[in-house]
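Friendly challenge for the regulars: who can give me the structure tokens for this chain first? No prize, just bragging rights.
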Amino acid sequence: MPPTLGDDNGSPHDEEPASDGAQQDDGVDASVDWDGLPNAVRSRLAELAAAALGQLRPGDVPARLRPVVRFAASKRAKLGKDVLVASLRDSTVFRTAVVDWCRVHRPEALDTHHADAVVVAVAAVLQGAPQAPHYAELVSHRAERGQLRSERDSALARSEKLAAEAERLRTRLAEMERASARTEQDSEADKLRKRLREQGVRLKAAKEDAESARAELERVRRDTRDEVSEIAAQRDRELSRAREDRVRAERAASEAEVARQSAREARQGDEVRLALLLDTLEGSIGGLRRELGASGRGPRPAESVTGVRAHSGTTGRVPDQTTLERLLALPAVHLVVDGYNVTKTGYPELPLADQRGRLAHQLAAMAARTGAEVTVVFDGADVVSVPSAGPRGIRVLFSEPGVQADDVIRGLVDAEPPGRQLIVATSDREVVDSVRQRGAYAVSSAVLLQRINRV
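First reply, four minutes later:
Bragging rights claimed.
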């Protein structure tokens, strides 16, 4: 048989079985009567809020609590009890911050399976559990029951004391009656009899008070058992709804999986058709190449820098990432990068070898995404051992001793055939002016860094 509220050793979960869902803050408004909370629950809420107050971010603390923050930590709960509880009631941000602090520093304060009914009620109120009002009412019933028990015990104690006093008076009266031989003794005996009658009246009243307290305690027990039964029934209904929701969710997940499978099959069919189309196009392009005798083999212009050829006209400066993105999307575009000019703009604190490696890998990633031809040029004067190869997809060049990287960049621009789109990334004004006169676009090192850092 489950324990009743008359069992002081019973935990709140002996009186009200709790489901797993009661531990979670699901955001449902529990309609807690904050002003009607038992004093023990209010005091516990004030203690937790006062303990967390000194460690919360200023933005999580309501303005009316700022004077309370200045109190000594040991006095906050006592001096600011009402305003602390009111802030927990009115500020969801503050209440959430206190709950988060409890999870880290006092997890036992959020235990809805705790043996102490006050702890369970506080945890339910803070987390907004649907059973919070019932837990608060349960604590009130317990407090009322404790008060009635105290009054009953006090009445029984008074009754026993009066009975002992009456017995003492009877003993004294008997002794006086046996030894009374004078009128004064008879008068004293009358006084004692009168006091005895008064004590008897008081004893009767005390017994009636004790009986009334027993009846009230029994009524509270019956009401509490009814409340527990109602809470258990509500819990069962919620569990039933949760099971139904779970079944619906599983059915929806199954339907979604079927839809995803259908979409995958449709996409696979589209991919097969697209692959067949690409194969057809590739075959057509290959036949056209063979017919025209254009093999496309041989060194690229940037791999063999010879001679200088000036172009008439100038090409503009690339002002932002959007313009650079459009240029990189052009077919057969060639990006030439002034290596150290870019690295010393973006990460000058790194050693030169690390600068070269970082820039090369970033450019390789961008080249893989855009399909552009990328050549990066470094001054070779301070390079003891030139790497044999750079990252896949880009060309890394080092100038010969006595030759500046700027001259190599100009040679690369001059080596390209007229009409090919060229972009030179540098912030060196002389290089910018010279390559623009040769028909290339110029983009600043900062704009290029923004683009490659986004890859």
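Residues 1-30, 306-314 have pLDDT under 50 and may be disordered. The chain has 15 helices and six strands. Your move, everyone else.
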